[in-house]
Structures are given as C-alpha cells and as structure tokens.
UniProtKB/TrEMBL annotation, chain A:
Topological type in the membrane: Multi-pass membrane protein
UniProt entry tagged with the keyword Transmembrane: yes
PANTHER family in the cross-refs: CYTOCHROME B_B6 PROTEIN-RELATED (PTHR30071:SF1), HEME EXPORTER PROTEIN C (PTHR30071)
Name of the protein in its database record: Cytochrome c biogenesis protein CcsA
TrEMBL record, chain B:
Membrane-spanning ranges: 20-40, 52-70, 91-115, 127-149, 156-175, 195-216
Sequence similarity: Belongs to the CcmB/CycW/HelB family.
Subcellular compartments: Membrane
Record protein name field: Heme exporter protein CcmB
C-alpha cells in the first residue's frame, strides 16, 4: 500500500486531467480555439517520451557500471514505452493538425515532426541491434553503448534543430498563437503540469509491468 | 603511440589498395548514375537539388568507407591490440585516420560531382569548411557505429540503419550551411549552425572516447 502511492497518484492525476481538461474554460485564441485542449494529451506525450527515454539511457549507464542484466531489461522496456509515447504523440498531433492546419499533406515537413520521426528511427534501430545479437551479456553491453551514444544526438535533434529552423506550423513558433512561457494561460497550467506528471508516471507504470513480465518469461525459459 | 597507430592504419590501407579503389569507384559510379537518372545537362539542375543529392551521396560514401573500420581486423589481431594499447587511444587513432580519409573522399567527391553536375557554389571556402567539419562528425559517429556493428552478424545492414538516423542532425546542419554557401553568404552570417556543427563534433568525439572502452571489453 505504501509502496504503491505513486500508482494512486497516477490514477488521480489522469482522472483530473481528463475531467478538468475537457471542462475548464479554454482561452479564445485565433485558429486554436477549443483544440487547445489537446495541450493536455498531445504535449505530455512528448514530455513523457523524452523523460522515459532519458530513463532508458540512465538504465544503460547503470548497466555498464554494474553489469546487472536487470538494468539492461529495464533499458529495453523503457525504450519500448518511449517509442509508444512517440507514436501516440504523432497520432494525437495528426488528429489535431487535421482541424487546425487543415491539411495532412506536407505535415512531415514540420521540423518538430521530422525530429520525432528520426528519434523513432533511432530507437527502432536500437531494437534491431538488440534482436541481432544473441549472447545476453554482449547484447546488453553493445546496445547500452549505442543507446548512450545516440542520446545526445537525439536531444540535439529534438531541442536545437527545431529552434534553428525558420518556419514551423506549431503554436508558439514563427508568430503562431501558442502557449509560450509568457502566454500560457494560468488556468491551462493548472491542468498541464499535472497532466505531464500523470502521463509520465503512467508510462513508468507500464514499463514496470512489462519488466515483471520479462522477468517471469526469463525464469520460465530457465526451467 | 598515437602516431604509430595512425600510421599503422595508413600502412594497412596502402597494402590493400582495393579498399580505397573500391570506394573511389563507388563514388564515381554513384555520381554518374545520379547524373544519368536526373538527365541533367550541365548547370540546369536546381541548386537546392544539387545540394541535397551531394550530401546524400556523401553520407553513403562515408558509411561505405568506414564500415570496414573494425570488421577488417581479425579477431586474434584485435585481442593482441587489446593487450597492447589503451582502448581510448585506439579509438582516437582510428577516428583520426577516418577523419583524414573522409575529408579526402569529401574533397574528391566535391570535385568530381561539380565536374559532372556543374558547380553552383559561390562561397567555396565556406563550403569546404563545412565539408571538413561534417567529415569530422561523420567519421567519429561511423567509427563508433562500426565498432558496435562489428559485434553482430549482419554488419552491412546494421551499419546503415544504426548510423543514418544519428547522422541526421549533422546532415541537416551541413545542408543548411552549404545552401548558404551556394547563395554566397558571408561566413559570419552562418556562425550559429557552424558553431552547432562544431559543438556536435566535440560531443560525439567525447562520448565516443568515454564509451569505447566498454565496447572493446569483449
């Protein structure tokens, strides 16, 4: 009961996000209008993805310093959840973009979407690398090295390059109305930050369940 | 020690000239096929297309040139090296050699490419600085990835799949800068992306130096 407090917190936060996210009064911004509620579902996916992938890298570092295979499974599981968050972020973004950008053609050209696509490619490559190595220790070591090596490049892709690009359709970029630090409505913040924490914790929760399944499978294989 | 390792790489390369000749031929064939399939007469191709095709060709040349960096060494030889030198030293030497190799290949492909497809570049020094900076980053990434991929069976596929996505940040920046070079921008006007490429180069080399000993432990 005491150990699981964060699971209850996740449930409470997500219920709050969904209820309040749909019921609070949205600020009237040009073009965005009610669709700004996607802020509570789409944007937390990216925050969650980056935090969870960072967790995966931390597990890889811990594997290299301890040689504990559990850490390696942790890195693998977290990377998979991170990929899922990336896909979900793209889907929620695509639904939103249909109604605000009004077109699907050319949506890949947006620098943020390109960056996410390449991030997904990096982690698919990571999974491919894992599946092509058979020896357990070797797989753990080599994939940990790749995971850590790719991470700073992925971060540069996600955070630096979109800011260097001139044009983006995303709110807050290139003069579009949006939710930058100065115009993020305080009522939106009341829901946005809990949403980020809630969705990230949910991802971690999924990862722990997956981790336990992997451990059971591992045990069954040994018997 | 560092110098000896680099000169050892040169010596091996010189002994088996087929590797370098193979890359040169690969370079010539790819560029010529691009020329044929685009059906361009000299100078008729749009500068932006010229630019992106050059960088795509260059990244594939880089992957092919460096892919054999570790798989070329025999297992026994690797073991011998392991007992002899510090892995960080080995990584530094290998990447230094690959940086030189790639810079030379970059220059050759630039010359040959502009010979076949025409040359819209107005600010050549900027283009060359960009080429060298990108070669450093590519070489360091690919040396590391070749070390990673040499552990698995399907080295060739893994090499491309593992390295291309992490080369994208460098690739995007260098395309941006060389576009500026085509439009005859001053160097001072593009200091931001130039600095970013330089910073990325340093990050890649440092992370490689830190991680390589773990890779080499087997």
């Amino acid at each position: 009961m005491k150990k699981n407090w964060w699971k209850y917190l996740t449930i409470v936060l997500l219920i709050y996000t969904v209820v309040a996210g749909f019921l609070i009064e949205a600020p009237r911004l040009n073009i965005l209008n009610e669709s700004i509620r996607n802020l509570f579902f789409h944007v937390p996916m990216w925050f969650g993805m980056v935090i969870i992938l960072t967790g995966s890298v931390i597990q890889s570092v811990r594997y290299l310093s301890s040689n504990d295979l559990n850490k390696d499974i942790g890195a693998d599981v977290l990377a998979k959840v991170g990929i899922w968050y990336g896909v979900l972020g793209l889907v929620t973004g695509a639904v939103w973009a249909t109604y605000t950008w009004g077109r699907m053609a050319g949506w890949l050209a947006d620098p943020k979407i390109t960056a996410v696509f390449v991030t997904l490619l990096i982690y698919f490559a990571y999974l491919l690398l894992r599946s092509s190595l058979n020896d357990e220790q070797k797989r753990a070591r080599v994939s940990a090295v790749y995971n850590i090596f790719a991470y700073p490049l992925m971060i540069s892709l996600l955070f630096i390059l979109p800011r260097l690009a001139e044009n983006s359709l995303h709110p807050g970029n290139a003069g579009n109305p949006g939710f930058n630090a100065y115009d993020l409505d305080s009522r939106l913040r009341m829901v946005f930050y809990p949403a980020v924490i809630g969705w990230t914790l949910l991802g971690y929760w999924i990862a722990t369940l997956h981790f336990r399944i992997r451990k059971i499978e591992h045990k069954l294989e040994e018997e | 020690m560092f110098r000896k390792l680099v000169s050892k790489e040169f010596l091996i390369e010189w002994r088996q000239k087929y590797a370098i000749n193979g890359i040169l031929l690969y370079l010539a064939t790819t560029i010529f096929i691009t020329y044929l399939s685009l059906g361009v007469q000299r100078g008729l191709i749009h500068p932006l297309t010229w630019n992106s095709i050059f960088w795509i060709i260059f990244s594939f040349i880089a992957i092919n040139a460096i892919a054999k960096s570790f798989s070329g060494d025999e297992k026994r030889q690797q073991l011998y090296m392991y007992s002899l030198v510090d892995p960080q030293m080995l990584f530094a030497a290998k990447s230094a050699y690959n940086i030189l190799l790639l810079t030379v290949f970059g220059l050759i492909s630039f010359v040959f490419y502009s010979f076949v497809m025409g040359n819209p570049v107005a600010n050549t020094p900027l283009f060359l600085i960009n080429l060298v900076l990108t070669s450093i980053g590519f070489a360091a990434i690919l040396t590391m990835v070749s070390g990673i991929a040499s552990n698995a069976e399907n080295t060739a596929t893994l090499m491309a799949v593992l390295s291309l996505p992490i080369m994208v940040p460098l690739l995007l920046l260098s395309i941006k800068i060389s576009k500026a070079a085509i439009d005859n921008f001053e160097i001072l006007l593009v200091w931001k992306p130039l600095l970013s490429i330089f910073a990325l180069d340093i990050i890649i080399v440092v992370v490689g130096l830190v991680l390589f000993p773990y890779l080499w432990r087997s």
